[in-house]
Design a protein that fits this description.
The chain is about 45% helix and about 10% strand. The chain is α/β, with parallel strands linked by helices. The strands form two sheets. A seven-stranded parallel β-sheet has the order 1-4-5-6-7-8-9. A two-stranded antiparallel ribbon has the order 2-3. Bound molecules: coproporphyrinogen III. The site of coproporphyrinogen III (CP3) has 22 residues, from strand 3.
């Protein structure tokens, strides 16, 4: 089934998370966490003893079960689909594996125009049919308790893995590709943007209530290079999603010096990291919803400190509509579950308007 079903109307489509994305007033500030599904939850770690990471991703029943875990355990106001930014690349002909403690490793990195040309167009219903089924199953299992966020990797962040072959600190191979083979670079970004847009549209048509684009490593670029080599493609994705009537979120880190560019991506919600005061970030971004800002490292401190720092962010925002409480990046893998649950309670308490 490609159309939307009865669950859309029950899934809190006018609940506090979606209202905040739309900058509407609500009874309290919604809270969810990036990387809340899997990673730090003991029930996920237990499942991982039995199954490989990609085995869970490719099994819609298991993927939906992991998607639900943080909703049940922490009481967050949104679920995010359990998958990875690398998942759709397989359908484009890229072979990769996820290595423990390292992350994605690509077998044959993309290094020239020929490699770019050999990337196939993504048919999300064909090669990622299991993702669409995981979306439908997650929606059914959520039963309207929270909305479901679908996601994709942004072209630049995906390109860093494709070109470098794995995570790189200085992105030097990516940058030299970008500057010295700029025609091939633009062709690569065009293909990745088309794939991410198609992939996100399919998730929405399968039932996702909102979508987030992860551009984790965009902050490694100079503002001028971001404008020239990255921003047009991010804009293109959000332009293609405009008719879909679900809120869109753009996530990046290390981009507080280029928030004016990030604010022009066309996303409804902008995610900010902890390297900027949230009030200053909002002034720079303008009339858009804002997510993020708490330093993830705080999750490893005592609950009193976490509550106090969460309170500071909520005070600074002062109940302004359009605020979604989140961390500036992903939940650290060693976070004690009580700290995550305690932070949700703190936001629910202090964030009541
Ligand atoms: O938010 C969620 O919890 C939903 C699931 C999700 C995963 N990865 C599961 C995962 C999401 C949204 C992602 C996004 C992702 N993947 C990003 C962007 C967000 C970010 O944190 O910057 C990036 C850069 C990746 C690439 C990736 N995948 C890395 C670097 C790793 C290494 C381990 C880690 O947790 O960071 C992965 C593997 C991965 N993706 C795991 C999980 C739960 C761990 C795999 C395992 O179970 O061993």
């Amino acid at each position: 089934m490609r159309g939307r079903g009865v669950w859309d109307f029950m899934a809190g489509r006018d609940g506090i998370f979606i209202r905040a994305c739309r900058m509407k007033k609500s009874s309290r500030t919604p809270v969810w966490f990036m990387r809340q599904a899997g990673r730090f939850l003991p029930e996920y770690r237990k499942l991982r003893k039995q199954y490989g990471f990609m085995d869970i991703v490719k099994d819609p029943k298991l993927a939906a079960a992991v998607t639900l875990m943080p909703v049940e355990r922490l009481g967050v106001d949104a679920a995010i689909l359990f998958s990875d930014i690398m998942t759709p690349l397989e359908g484009m002909g890229v072979r990769f594996r996820i290595e423990d403690g390292i992350g994605p490793v690509v077998d044959a990195p993309v290094r020239d125009f020929y490699d770019v040309e050999s990337l196939r167009e993504l048919d999300p219903y064909e090669s990622t049919a299991f993702v669409m089924e995981a979306v439908r199953r997650s929606k059914r299992a959520l039963h309207g308790r929270t909305p479901l966020i679908g996601f994709a990797g942004a072209p630049f962040t995906l390109a860093t893995y494709l070109v470098e072959g794995k995570r790189s600190e200085d992105l030097s191979v990516t940058k030299s590709f970008m500057h010295s083979k700029s025609d091939a670079w633009h062709a690569l970004m065009e293909r990745l943007a088309a794939a991410s847009a198609e992939y996100l549209s399919a998730q929405v048509l399968s039932g996702a209530d909102a979508v987030q684009l992860f551009d984790s490593w965009a902050g490694g670029l100079s503002p001028a290079d971001y404008e020239e080599y990255v921003l047009p493609y991010v804009k293109d994705i959000f332009r293609r999603l405009r008719g879909m009537e679900v809120p869109t979120i753009y996530f990046s880190t290390g981009t507080s010096v280029m928030l004016d560019s990030v604010g022009r991506t066309g996303a409804n919600v902008i995610s900010v990291d902890w390297r900027i005061d949230i009030g200053d970030a909002w002034d720079k971004i303008g009339k858009k919803a804002l997510q993020g800002n708490l330093d993830p490292a705080l999750m490893l401190c005592d609950i009193k400190t976490i509550r106090e720092r969460a309170g500071r962010i909520l005070d600074r925002v002062g109940g302004r509509p359009g605020h979604i409480f989140n961390l500036g990046h992903g939940m650290p893998p060693t976070t004690p579950v009580d700290n995550a649950a305690g932070l949700v309670s703190a936001v629910h308490e202090y964030g009541a308007h």
